[in-house]
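Supplementary Methods S3. Complex input for the 4'-deoxy-4'-aminopyridoxal-5'-phosphate-bound model.
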Amino acid sequence: LSSRLRPFTSTIFAEITELARRNEAVNLGQGFPDTDGPAGMLRSAERAIADGTNQYPPGPGEPELRAAIGAQRAADYGIEHDPETEILVTVGATEAISAAMLGLVEPGDEVVLLEPYYDSYPVAVSLAGGTRRTVPLRVSGGRFGLDAAALRAAVGPNTRALVLNSPHNPTGAVFTEAELAEVARVCRENDLLAITDEVYEHLVYDGRGHVPLATFPGMAERTLSVSSAGKSFNVTGWKIGWVCGPPELVAAVRAAKQFMTFVGGAPFQPAVAHALREERDWLPELRTELQQKRDRLRAGLGSAGFDVLACEGTYFLCADIRPLGYTDGAEFCRGLPERAGVAAIPLQVLCDDPEPVRHLVRFACCKRDEVIDEGVRRLHKLG
Ligand code: PMP
Ligand code: GLN
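Predicted complex, serialized as structure tokens:
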């Protein structure tokens, strides 16, 4: 194994899902929904296959999909992109982020990650020959938030880029406008590239909305905004993602992407275009439904004895295991499928410094109500 990959063991999501399968556990670990997306979108994909949309699509993505992504961002955020040069379709958000690192980070460059981080970020930095600098998010008032002083302290002369994920996996935090403004200020003052992972952009609850970092002053020209259809339309297995930004940055991502996968998901691209364009009711309905599921799972975890942190967006709730007499989240999660028949994800494996989150584990609420209820019923046996 190359030295670039050696520090990384297998992904925690695959490990816990395999444990869940072996123990027939209720999988509240890996974040994927257990119901299908809009029927019209599924039919559109079937039609595309039947009609012969089965060969390589254009390198930057089907024009129809790039146009639909541009229209969504203009309508939702007032951001205008030229679909020819400023929007690139990728194999999920994962490829967009990896290709951005490979296309823009020089060996020796530093990249700032907030932790806990999504598990592919440190690997993407390492594959690009970069060095990560991590900044812990801090729990205050029952929610995870930005530690602006720690962020400033992590940035130095070799810092090239910062990755911002909001709404945030695994914490469920949605950064406030004040927090985003602070991140934007740090990026501007230090001439950083911002790579924003916005795959949960439509999953923000309690009447709040998603605010892209690219909308802050001086940020559009230095931001690559990444998103994906997986979480918005319940198709995590389709792996249709995209990245939007200024032409020279998008060109660098494309330069890497063309030799990684070239293209992907031909028949799914028109289907996602259809969903963005035509399925107008889907996203508000999904948001309402997931907010109810969040509330259901939060109440259930509370009744089972966990202390639950705020979930402002995403699929995820973080729970403190100490009230149940446990102290180590990784140990807890590796034993949970066998002990209780439930799967969850420990936060500490998503950090360089595990200590601040050792007692926290992540549960996913993007499951049918009866699945959530069965998971909660089983968790009650722990207490
Ligand atoms: N970023 C975050 C924060 C995620 O939670 C995920 C997983 N859904 C991804 C990226 C990967 O997205 P995709 O499946 O589109 O590659
Ligand atoms: N994004 C999902 C999660 O955080 C899973 C992604 C994966 O399995 N790689 O649970």
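The chain has two domains: 12-37+282-382, 39-278. Residues 31, 92-94, 118, 165, 169, 197, 199, 228, 230-231, 236, 239, 241 surround 4'-deoxy-4'-aminopyridoxal-5'-phosphate (ligand 1) (CB under 6 Å).
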